[in-house]
Amino acid sequence: MEKSTAASCTAQLADFIYETQWEDMPVGMQHELKRSLMNYFAVSLAGCNDPTTDIVVRTFSPFSAGSAASLIGRTERMDILHAAAINALAANVYDYDDTHIPTIIHPTAPVAAALLAYGESNPIPGRAFMVALLLGIETQCRIGLAISPFHYSRGWHITSTCGVFGSAMALGKILGLLPNQLGWALGTAACQAGGLVESLGTMSKSMSVGNAARNGMLSALLAKEGFDGPARPLEGDYGFTRVFGQSPDLSAITNDLGSTWQLSNVAYKPYPCGVVLNPVLDAALDLAGQLTPEDICKITAIEITGHPLLKQRTDRPGVSSGRESQVSAQHAVPVALLRKSAGLTEFSDTAVNDPAVKALGTRVRFIEDGTYSIESAKVTLHLHDKRTMEKHIAIAKGSLARPLTDDELETKLRDLCKYGASGCDPNPLIAALWELETLDDISLLPALAVAKT
């Protein structure tokens, strides 16, 4: 595909979105898109009946303008904007969604939720859907790269702030927006970007992910009707990257467009918690297999050695809810040692209030080591009989270098579907996902993922 010679990065990105076709997509990215959707439906079905989702459905219902779109794992239907928001929210509730490793963006939920909701009343062939999904993921991850690491470190929830651009460009592609209209959609999306790291561990965190799906979709729909925006919403003096970033790297948005794809830097979680805890849990579960009940009683200290970001993100003692526990090493390590497992049950309110887990959590200590990558960690157990036990994980399960297999992603979907108690049969959905490019109409996917009464 010929590269655009447009001057501004907004224009270059809009040209790229407009020009890219199925033939421009590498075969490897086609398969990875199916994996990303497998994970998306898994985590959406897990969170479909969570109290967070229940409250939002109950609150939104009186304001829904119709019933064009499904709510994954549920019987209710809503208009496409509300459905997109709720389905993206449900996918993010348990922090089990995919992760763009360089930025820590969870890219699929805002984009897939918007496309699937729109596609239920506006038929989208599988190939067109895949192109739009890929471009939406590419957009938000590249914008995220331009403002990382300052943006997240400053306290912005990067999935929410950048996800709105992904859903806008994905739907803009489906709507056939012209480059200038795509630029308008980016501008309107920029004016609706929001989300705070302060919200982690609360229901509010997932609400802003839902807003990213809905507001991005709205931005594209408005642009189609002639709703304009600033010419340089990304790079302007008061544009998104300069307001939300510090010395933004605008080249990250435009360099090698169409020859490198950010989806290749997306990983899928083996555990329902912050991605920096993955190597810690790998180590804790390995040690758990070696411990006897008597050993557990002898633990006097638990040392966690890792990248400084590990302590920054997960040093949360005394958590009081399952949601908070997803970003707490003081919960994650003890519960894995005691229960020899690290699934959704281990990050529930019940597990958090287990006295044995709480007691062992008081013995956790961090050792910061800048030589560790965020995908590595060491857990050392000190026992009162002077013994020590330790396990070092160089590459965490679920990382780019050690990804979940296709079979493991299928298992994740089946397990989380069961956990979410929707009554949905995951097997037809799995089969349809692997044949995504052959579908005449992607509305089959949400139809296979609704609750069975």
Write a concise keyword list for the protein shown above:
2 domains; disordered N terminus; 453 residues; 4-stranded mixed sheet; two-stranded antiparallel sheet; globular; 60s Ribosomal Protein L30, Chain: A; alpha+beta; 2-methylcitrate dehydratase PrpD
Strand and helix layout:
Blueprint: H1 9-19, H2 27-47, H3 51-60, E1 69-70, E2 77-78, H4 80-92, E3 99-100, H5 108-119, H6 126-147, H7 150-153, H8 158-175, H9 179-190, H10 203-224, H11 240-244, H12 251-254, E4 266-267, H13 278-288, H14 293-298, E5 299-306, H15 308-314, H16 322-325, H17 329-339, H18 349-352, H19 355-361, E6 364-368, E7 377-383, E8 388-393, H20 406-420, H21 426-434, H22 444-448
Parallel strand pairs: 5-6
Antiparallel strand pairs: 1-2, 3-4, 5-7, 7-8
Helix pairs in contact: 1-9, 2-4, 2-20, 3-4, 4-5, 4-10, 5-6, 5-8, 5-10, 6-8, 8-9, 8-10, 9-10, 13-17, 17-19
How many strands, what sense, and barrel or not for the largest sheet? Answer: 4 strands, mixed
β-strand percent reads 5-15%
Quaternary state reads: single chain
Number of strands: 8
Number of helices: 22
| Coarse structural class | alpha+beta
Q: How far is the N terminus from the C terminus? A: 48 Å
Our count of domains comes out at: 2
Radius of gyration: 22 Å
The string of secondary-structure elements, in order, is HHHEEHEHHHHHHHHEHHEHHHHHEEEHHH
Q: Tell me the strand order in the biggest sheet.
A: 6-5-7-8
**CATH class call of the largest domain:** Mainly Alpha
Average residue-wise pLDDT: 95
Question: Residue share in helices?
Answer: 40-55%
| Poorly predicted segments | 1-6
Described by the principal axes of the CA atoms, the overall outline is globular
- In CATH terms, the superfamily of the largest domain is 2-methylcitrate dehydratase PrpD
CATH fold naming of the largest domain: 2-methylcitrate dehydratase PrpD
Q: Give me the CATH architecture of the largest domain, please.
A: Orthogonal Bundle
